[in-house]
Amino acid sequence: ERVCQWLNNPKKVFPILIELSLNNICNNRCIFCALDYCRKPIKGKNLEFSLLKKLMPELSALGIKSIFIAGTGEPTLHPNFIEIIKLIKKNNIDVALNTNMLAYSKEKIEMTLEYLSWIRISINAATPKIYSKIHNCAEKNFEKVIENIITAVKYKKDKKLNTTIGPQIVLIDDNIS
Questions:
Q1: DSSP class of residue 69?
Q2: Which of 23, 27, 55, 132 lies at 20 to 30 Å from 147 by C-alpha?
Q3: Edge-to-edge, what's the strand order for the sheet holding 116-122?
Q4: Nearest to 31 by CA among 129, 128, 137
Q5: Residue 10: helix, strand or coil by DSSP?
Q6: Considering only CA atoms, which of 45, 118, 56, 128 is closest in space to residue 92?
Q7: DSSP H/E element including 97
Q8: Taking the CB of residue 108, how many other CB atoms lie within 10 A of it?
């Protein structure tokens, strides 16, 4: 239906899905990430919450069906992360999340999970040692991520939520075995 609308009048048809990057701030420096390859100091910036409050009703009116929060930084580090998730859903737009799960705390899980259609967790390893190597962080962070995943799954089950929670592994030489 949307393709037919676009063929008939391309200036009045908008995307079904938008990928939204809330910031360029991250708590990891993954070896495959574009932020790491820039090799420049990154002056961290967050997308203005006031801009999003103005934009969401407009996107909803244009027929945007879903927003995938991913992109250039770790979205859970945005100071208004919880409010943003709720704002998107309040505007009748489905919302999904890509996160490294390190800062996705119990509080954030409990405040946002019911609003999310799905979460993709960028874990990229099966052991603390490989995780540390790929994410350029302390090995203990792997255990924190696993703990946060368990917390999210338990909360989902306890609240009987439909949110899909799944891991992602970018396959590279460092984790192939």
A1: E
A2: 23
A3: 17-20, 66-69, 94-99, 116-122, 164-168
A4: 137
A5: helix
A6: 56
A7: strand 94-99
A8: 17
Contact by Cβ (8 Å): 44, 25 = yes
Give the pLDDT confidence of 107-161 residue by residue, as tens digits. Answer: 999 999 999 999 999 999 999 999 999 999 999 999 999 999 999 999 999 999 9
In a 10 Å sphere around its CB, with 0-12 CB exposed, 13-18 middle and 19+ buried, how is residue 116 labelled?
buried
Residue type at 158? D
Q: Which residues pair with 66 in a beta bridge?
A: 17, 94
CA distance linking residue 5 with residue 11, whole number of Å: 10
Per-state percent for the chain, helix, strand, coil, to nearest 5: 45, 15, 40
Phi, psi for 107 (deg, rounded to 5) = -60, -45
Residues 49/55/56/57 CA torsion (nearest 10 deg): 130
By the 8 A CB rule, do 110 and 80 touch?
no
> Which residues neighbour 166 within 8 Å (Cβ) at sequence distance 6 or greater?
118, 119, 120, 121
Global pTM reads: 0.90
Structure tokens of 53? 């409050």
- Check residue 23 and report its DSSP letter: B
